[in-house]
Every structure is written in C-alpha cells, then in structure tokens.
Amino acid sequence: MAKSTGNSKVKKKPDAERLIELYMNDVLENEKTPKSVFKFAKDHGLEEQDFYKHFGSFEGLRKTIWEKFFENSVKVMEKSKEYASFSSREKLLTFFYTLFEVLTANRSYVLFVLSDENSTLKNLEQLKGLRKKMKSYAKGLVEEGNQNKSIKLLRQNEMIFSEGVWIQFLFLLKFWKDDNSAGFESTDVAIEKSVNTVFDVFDNTPLERIVDFGKFLWKEKMA
Predict the structure, then answer these.
(1) pLDDT (0 to 100) of residue 162
(2) Contacts of 150 (CB under 8 A, 6+ apart)
(3) Could you tell me if 21 and 109 are in contact, meaning their C-beta atoms sit under 8 angstroms apart?
(4) What are residue 10's phi and psi, to 5 degrees?
(5) Which residues, at least 6 apart from 212, have a Cβ–Cβ distance to it below 8 Å?
(6) 115 — phi, psi (to 5°)?
(7) How far apart are CA 77 and CA 99, in angstroms?
C-alpha cells in the first residue's frame, strides 16, 4: 500500500545533543532531576526507545554532558591557528581557560548537579568520563614535552603528571564554584598560577611559583 504524501510530517527522532538539551532544561526549570525515563520521554512527546538509543540511563547522560564540555573546549582550541605551535604549558593554560568558559556558560546546571555536598562520590561518578579524557589529554602534553628533552632524567612521568592535572582540575572546579569575583577573574588568576606551579614542579624549579601560588590562595581565603 502506497504511503500518503500529503501534509503529514514524520516526526524527527531526537539525537544525543537534543536529549542533553532537553534534560538540562528540565533540571534547571524544575530544579530537580527527572524521576524516570518514561516520564521524561512522555513530557517531551518521545518514546522511551528514543532515549535508550543514545543513553542507557540518566547516569550515562550526565556523564556524557561532562564529556561534551571537554570535547567542545578542545574543538574551540583547535580552531585557533596558533594553538598547534603552543608549548605544553601554554596548551594546558588555554585548555583550562576554555573549559571554564564552557562551564561558565552552563554555570547554573553545573552548580545544581554539584550542589549536594554530602554526595561527593555521586558527584565524582558523573565526572568519570571527563577524567579519562582529561588524563589522556594531559598525557599527550607530556609526550610532546618529553620529545624535546634529550636527558632521560628530565622527562616527566606521564601517569603522575596526568593525575596531577586531574587533581588540579578538581581544585579549580571547587575554586570556580565559590568564586564571587566579577567575570570570575579570580578563577583566571588561579588557573594561571596553578598551571605554572604544576609545570615548575615537574621542571624542578618550584619554589618561587609555589610561594606565589600559596600567597594567592591565602589572600582569596582571607578576603
């Protein structure tokens, strides 16, 4: 039997990006997470399978949101012609600046999903995918830097450095959450000082940077 070619429209199935957008809007507008995939789908005129085609659960969707924050940051950086010629230190600075710009653009959502101070493990669970991607990115920076060091003893340990970058991100995330400065200028300063400190530690010239960074943190804490 021939299908009708009248004015009826075939409803377009949502892709992962659209589902993420709907989910984030729901969280912000209702100030709570959806109770079930069934209810979420029904509220948006979808079938449950439309959701499960892209995500196995809301937990999987939440992890993907953080991964998208990372991927969008990298895309923005790689559009710059200058980025490829940056040193590893400059690339990490650019990465953190860009990532926190992305987070700031989604600040209401980020603050909400990280608002439960009593559920640290739950908060870290949604960051698992981001952690994997960030550590891989950091390892790549170390590999680039090590290629320019002919003396083996001066080469940086990829595993230790990548873990350090992740811990640094968690510190900066907490700092950014509590930052009340205009345009989050204090976070920008924290990014610069912390990245310089991390690299100086690994380059065995840490003292001046660490003291400078410590003074900054003390000033922010006592302000």
Answers:
(1) 86
(2) none
(3) no
(4) -80, 125
(5) 193, 197
(6) -80, -20
(7) 10
CA 123 – CA 125 distance, rounded (Å)? 5
Contact 169, 195 (CB under 8 A): no
The label of the residue with tokens 């960051």 reads 127
State the residue for tokens 């987070």.
Answer: 103
Dihedral, CA atoms, 142, 96, 32, 182, nearest 10 degrees?
160
* Higher-scoring residue by pLDDT: 156, 4: 156
**Residue 98 and residue 73 in contact, taking contact as beta carbons nearer than 8 Å:** yes
Q: How confident is the model at residue 122 (pLDDT cuts 50, 70, 90)?
A: low
- Tell me, what amino acid is at 121? L
Q: Are the C-beta atoms of residues 175 and 166 closer than 8 Å to each other?
A: no
Is 70 exceeded by the pLDDT of residue 148?
Answer: no
pTM of the model: 0.81
Cα→Cα distances 194→77, 136, 174, Å: 20, 19, 13
**C-alpha to C-alpha distances, 209 to 9, 65, 200, nearest whole angstrom:** 62, 34, 7
User: What gap in Å lies between CA 166 and CA 102, rounded to an integer?
Assistant: 17
Q: To the nearest whole number, what is the mean pLDDT of the chain?
A: 83
How confident is the model over 164-195, as pLDDT tens digits? 889 999 999 999 999 999 999 999 999 999 89
Sign of the dihedral defined by the CA atoms of residues 100, 72, 142, 110, in that order: positive
Using one digit for the tens of pLDDT, what is the confidence trace for 66-93? 999 999 999 999 999 899 999 989 999 9
